[in-house]
Every structure is written in structure tokens, then in C-alpha cells.
Amino acid sequence: MNGRNSRLAVLLLRCQWMLEEAAYELGSDRLSTSERGELATALTELARALHEPDGTRQSQEDSTHTEGERDRIREGVHA
Prior knowledge:
There is one protein chain. By secondary structure, the protein is mainly alpha-helical. The chain has one domain. Helix content is 76%, strand content 0%. The chain has helices at residues 3-27, 33-51, 56-62, 67-75. The relative contact order is 0.12.
């Protein structure tokens, strides 16, 4: 598996986990506004990655962030 496919696999699994958790929390009326925002951000990142078959967009976005910022973005941690 190449690096791009590995990244997509991680994003897909992360979003799957987040969606399952959100569905559970929403059913119990415990999904916060910030959790909704984090889910939306993760899904947007996944959608962008899926739309860019050659990965050029991600490379351009990565170049505008420091390494620490890229790590926080990938992990879904927002400053």
C-alpha cells in the first residue's frame, strides 16, 4: 500500500469511528457543538483527500503548515 492509500485508509477508519461515536452520542442527546464541528472537519478532510487522486492538493496544503500543525490536523486536534 502506498503512502496515499495508507493515508486514505487512516482517514476512512477515523471517520468511521467518529461517525459511530457521533450516532451513539446523538441518540442520547449528548453530541456537543464542538464534537459536531470536529466531525465536520474530519469529513471535509476525507472528502478532499478522496477528490484528489494524485494527492497534489494535500501536498500543497501540507506546505502551508508546520510539521506540528500537520500532525494536529491529521489527528483531528484543533488549536
